[in-house]
Each structure stands twice: as C-alpha cells, then as structure tokens.
Amino acid sequence: MIKRRIGLVVLLVWLLTLTGCFGFLKRTEKELDHICVSFPDDVEVIEKGTSVELNVVGRAEDESTVIFEPETVEWTFLPEGAGTLTPDTEAATKAVFTAATDFTGEVTVKVVADELDAEITFEVVEVFIFGSKAWRDGMEEEALGLQGPGDEEQNYKNVEQDSDKKGVQMIDGTRGYADGTAFSHWNWRGHWIKWNLNVTEPGDYALVIRYATKEDSEYTKRTLEINDVVIRGKDDPIELPSTGGFAGDGAVEQWGYQVVEGITIAEAGEISLVLTHAGTAGARKGTNLAWIALVSPASIRVDEDFLVRIEEVIGVERTDAWD
Q: Cα-flanking dihedrals φ and ψ of residue 287, to 5°?
C-alpha cells in the first residue's frame, strides 16, 4: 500500500511539473510588438458595391500572432466617397468596409488601437465576365468549325469507338446543368474545341473552366490558344485535377473548376478561344465541360459564390439536382 501511495505521489509531481505548476517548462506569452489589418484569405481586391470584413491582428516581433484586446479602436479610410466603414459593435478589432457602387480605385483603411496603428491598401474594381456554355447548337456540324481533330496521329476521328467519332456530345440535365449546357466525349488527344466570345473590355483576365472528370491529371491536360496565339502550350498545359467523377446521376459535387491566369486581351471585340486535349496519347480519357468564362481582373477571388455569379451572367441554368 505504501509503495502504491509513493507511486501516485511521484506521478502527481511529474504531471504538475509538465503543466508548469512548479515553474518548470512554463509557457511565456510573447509580447505585443505591432498590429496589422488583414483581409480574409489575404485577398486584397474587392468588387465595387460589395463588402469585406477587416480584422486587426496583434503581432509579436517575430510576426507570430498574439492576443490583442485594445481599450480604444478608431477606424478611418481614404478617399472620401469610396464607400462606408462600419465597426463591429461586439468586436472592436473588426470592421466591415462596403465599396460604393460608383467607385473604383485604391482605398486605404487606417486603424488606431490604443497607442498602435496600422493600415491596409486595397483596390476596388469593376468585374467583367465573358463566357459561354460548353455546348453550342450545331457543334456536331463540322462545317461550323467549332471542334476538330487537329494534326495528332490519334484523335476522335480515327478511333474504333463509333460513339466518339461524332466528337463531343450534349449532356442532359441529370448531371446538374440544363439540357444544352454541358458536353461529354472529349476523350482523345488532339481533339480541340473552339468558342467565339465577345469581350467588350480589354485587360488582364483569368479563364475559369467548369469541368468534371475522374481521370488523373496526365490525361486531362489542355492547351489554350486565343486568337491563334498560344497561351498555354504542350510544354506548359493546363491540368484539370480529378474531381472524383463525371457528375453522373446528379452527383453535382463532382463539378470542379480551374482558374488559369496570364491572359491579356489587348483590344475589345470578338475573340476565338481554343482548348485542345493534350493528355497522354493512345488513352481514351475524358473530361466533361459545363462552361468557360473569362473574368477580369485576373486577381478576383473565385469561390463557390462567384461561380454562381458567373453562371448568372453567361446564362447557365442549374437543375434541381443542386437542391
């Protein structure tokens, strides 16, 4: 019994030592050195007429985060007329900036908390979206020049599968998008698809590709040309990582997206955009496509909400499978 009690005492002393109750291994909080103002996910571009939450964060000298509970916080911004700034009534270190609907340009928000101050500068932009459903009426007619086999030795024109020789095929609404929106059977290397888009504003753009595939990236590579200029070639193709499937039987969670930056449209007007299957030769590996869109500025944050916004702008209709 005595040995058992001694063992329990030793165990208790050991636990107290580890937790710092006897002063050993005691954690010391780092001292507050400065503060900063941050955007969510470090995105520093917002669309005019939209809102963003700003946060004041305490930092130690090594930039690690420390607890910061100021007694007084004052928020200001420039230029006047850029929008409104509303402090959070429950959390003094937070505020919401709402950009005016008629303003574009740089905004600087400054915060003074106790004796520390910080500021952040971001840009309020007008967003432009130009896109197309993947499928267009008449794609099956070769004379329209909307798809073709290219100059590859193997492509949909010279394979044994009769179902592939027609090129891409329209997907019905069971996969989440209304009839006449998406297509399948983009299976063979060399198979190119062309879209003509009317881009009314020149500038730097990102291409957003809405797709679904179960294949590995080596089979989903695509090259990109705009107005016959190679943007992403065979040495630097676009990769479309597996989304887990082809969105069959209403599996709408299998629709993914890829964002491709580095696109400049120098002049307004109609452009031709061509994506070509550049996956491993000799393999029948496909990727279904729902829509494509060029968005500007290229730095705009693309998330699920923005995907819905794109679809609204370019006229893409979702089915009840999304409910």
A: -140, 125
Same domain as 234, residue 167: yes
- Please indicate, yes or no, if residue 221 is contained in any of the structural domains: yes
Give the integer Cα–Cα distance in Å for 131 and 149: 23
Q: CB–CB of 203/130 below 8 Å?
A: no
Range of the domain at 64: 34-125
Coil vs helix vs strand at 192:
strand
Q: Measuring CA to CA, which residue among 183, 163, 158 is closest to residue 282? A: 158
Does the bond joining 79 to the residue before it have cis omega, within 30 degrees of 0?
yes
Q: Say if 11 falls within a structural domain.
A: no
Residue 88: what pLDDT? 93
Tell me, rounded to whole angstroms, the distance of Cα 292 from its chain centroid.
14
CA dist., res. 110 & res. 250, Å (int): 48
pTM: 0.82
**Selection from 104, 95, 99 nearest residue 74 by Cα:** 95
Q: Which of 58, 59, 57, 103 is nearest to 77 (CA)?
A: 103
Q: Tell me, what's the pLDDT at 19?
A: 46
User: Rounded distance, CA 265 to CA 271, Å?
Assistant: 9
Q: How confident is residue 22, by pLDDT bands cut at 50, 70 and 90?
A: very low
**CA–CA separation, 13 and 80 (whole Å):** 63
pLDDT tops 70 at residue 250: yes
The domain boundary residue, chosen from 82, 104, 125: 125
Distance CA 37, CA 150 (A): 52
212 with 301, same domain? yes
For 101-157, write each residue's pLDDT tens digit.
999 999 999 999 999 999 999 999 999 999 999 999 989 888 789 999 987 788 899
What's the CATH code of the domain at 181? 2.60.120.260
Cα–Cα dist 153/1, whole Å: 86
Contact assessment for residue 178 and residue 317, using Cβ atoms and an 8 Å cutoff: yes
**Residues in Cβ contact with 259 at an 8 Å cutoff, skipping those fewer than 6 apart:** 206, 207, 208, 209, 302
